[in-house]
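Explain this protein:
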Amino acid sequence: MENEWIIELIIFIIGICIGSFLNVVIYRVPKSENIAYPPSHCPKCGKKLKPWHNIPIISYVLLKGKCAFCREKIPIRYPVIELSTGILAVLIYKKCGVDIYSTITFIVFALFLALSMIDFDYKAVPDSLNLLALTLSFFTTPEILENFKNALILMGGMSLIRYYVSYFIKREAMGEGDIILAGSIGALLGIKLSLFAIFIASLIAIFPSLYNRIFKKDFELPFIPFLTLGTFIVWYFNDYFLNLWSKLYG
């Protein structure tokens, strides 16, 4: 279509605006703050931001990454989250088009992104966002009951692994947040593809985990970011992974 790029641009703009809202969620929800009030303000000086200070990505560039009032440095993650959400919106559109199911899928992945950033910061995630993602994941396809069943199976399997591994290593092997997220993955992907997603997430996490253990002496690695990345890779290339499953297991 000749106007396809215009549609993609509009979707990208909508995506980065949602990414701007995600930044508010990521910052405020773990602190149990209201996400709507008070309006956006600098966390350092407390000054209320003007509308032109809140333009996704553009404001960061124009302000040279600093608060317009106190010149406090603005974390680079803010435009990165906005850009990532915009790209996410376009990729989902290119794969699924626009309908109620693709819209819900986008919201679920946007929540995954927020949960990933919160997990990086706190090594824990708020149940409110995690359960919202789980609930919405049931409605990402018309097969709602099947999605619900797959979520239960994945959560049960992850819980079983958690109890056994925790017993043998004498410490918590997996957080409850990971188990809830596993339910969302099961609903999104089904059982077969979920196994690929968890495997890919584990592979990606190997080197960061080794780095944490060797150089930081930290044995706790936030796993939700890797689960999110693994899930999106498998979801986006689901046909490839389904064919791979057929070749491996018939």
Remarks:
- The first helix runs from residue 4 to 28.
- Residues 108 and 221 are 23 Å apart (CA to CA).
- The chain has a mean pLDDT of 90.
- The chain has two domains: 1-97, 99-250.
